[in-house]
Inverse folding.
């Protein structure tokens, strides 16, 4: 992996370069923060070691510039510093540093921290690959990408509103909200396993076809279980798996695939379930017009406590203006030939 070193001390810079090359890294070294920033922009370095004290642009200002710069992917920054104390760590982390190594440093400590950075970057790469797979699944529908953006934003709005409810203190924090936003587009990742004859059927599904369609929740769970086997501590993957598997469960236990009920359904899945259904109701299809917000709201209220978690419905009712704004901002043209959930103008999308 390529590593960028930024250090104005020639002896320290040469020592770092020698150490990293011996460890198998490709290394590029500069003696100031300005040249480091240029190298990141031009050569897409993802792993950076920078000294805190440098001329022209010090390591902390370099961190700030990296975080405010449109670069290709996340840049993991390790700061070398002789500064001590909590205030220095707070300043550095607030600027965007990922890790610190005190000077003088032990070579093995630095290498261990570099490898930790590699693991973080590898996880981000896997997240991007999984999101790409979600896009692939959606492209087979063929729903437009606007569906993903709307569900993301609806899910975030619901999570933010529910975080104000004392009942969810300790469950919904800033990290939960971020992860719901990131993982909600993966809710239908399992559609990659559904035959085109069912997925692309331009009308109502038969009961047999609907049973096949329901398996997308199992396929999604299996896909993400395979990733979790390798990375069991990845909270991102755990939430994605719960959403993909359980966003069609119902509060009263009549959903699928497991017939879970109430709080046995993962909270993230209960949130995405409402976001996904609202988007289905308010989107136009070749065989139905889009429902207006008021009609969609009435259907969701009707299913409060049966299909939907009452707390999620309450959050939805408190966030109507935001839902309307998102729906208008990310409105679709016609989404053709697509299975879109469990609702039509008259009931479940199933014919016998």
């Amino acid at each position: 992996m390529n590593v960028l070193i930024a250090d104005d001390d020639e002896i320290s810079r040469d020592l770092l370069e020698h150490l990293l090359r011996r460890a198998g890294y490709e290394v590029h070294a500069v003696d100031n923060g300005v040249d480091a920033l240029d190298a990141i922009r031009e050569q897409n370095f993802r792993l950076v070691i920078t000294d805190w004290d440098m001329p022209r642009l010090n390591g902390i200002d370099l961190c700030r510039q990296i975080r405010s710069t449109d670069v290709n992917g996340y840049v993991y920054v390790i700061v070398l510093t002789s500064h001590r104390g909590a205030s220095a760590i707070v300043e550095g982390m607030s600027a965007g540093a990922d890790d610190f190594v005190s000077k003088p440093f032990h070579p093995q400590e630095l290498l261990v921290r570099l490898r930790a950075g590699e693991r973080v970057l590898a996880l981000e790469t896997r997240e991007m690959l999984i999101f790409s797979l979600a896009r692939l699944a959606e492209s087979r529908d063929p729903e437009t990408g606007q569906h993903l953006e709307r569900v993301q934003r609806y899910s975030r709005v619901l999570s933010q509103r529910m975080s104000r409810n004392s009942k969810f203190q300790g469950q919904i924090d800033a990290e939960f909200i971020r992860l719901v936003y990131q993982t909600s587009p993966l809710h239908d990742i399992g559609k990659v396993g559904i035959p085109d004859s069912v997925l692309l059927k331009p009308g109502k599904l038969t009961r047999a076809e609907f049973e096949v369609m329901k398996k997308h929740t199992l396929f999604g769970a299996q896909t993400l279980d395979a990733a979790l086997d390798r990375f069991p501590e990845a909270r991102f993957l755990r939430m994605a798996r719960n959403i993909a598997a359980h966003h069609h469960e119902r509060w009263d236990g009549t959903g699928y695939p497991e017939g879970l009920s109430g709080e046995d359904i993962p909270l993230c899945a209960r949130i995405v379930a409402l976001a996904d259904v609202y988007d289905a109701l308010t989107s136009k299809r070749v065989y139905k017009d889009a429902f207006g917000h008021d009609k969609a709201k009435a259907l969701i209220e009707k299913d409060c406590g049966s299909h939907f978690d009452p707390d999620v419905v309450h959050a939805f009712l408190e966030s109507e203006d935001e839902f309307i704004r998102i729906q208008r901002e990310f409105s679709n043209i016609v989404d053709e030939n697509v299975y879109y959930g469990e609702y039509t103008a008259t009931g479940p999308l199933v014919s016998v």
The longest helix spans residues 107-139. Residues 333-352 have pLDDT under 50 and may be disordered.
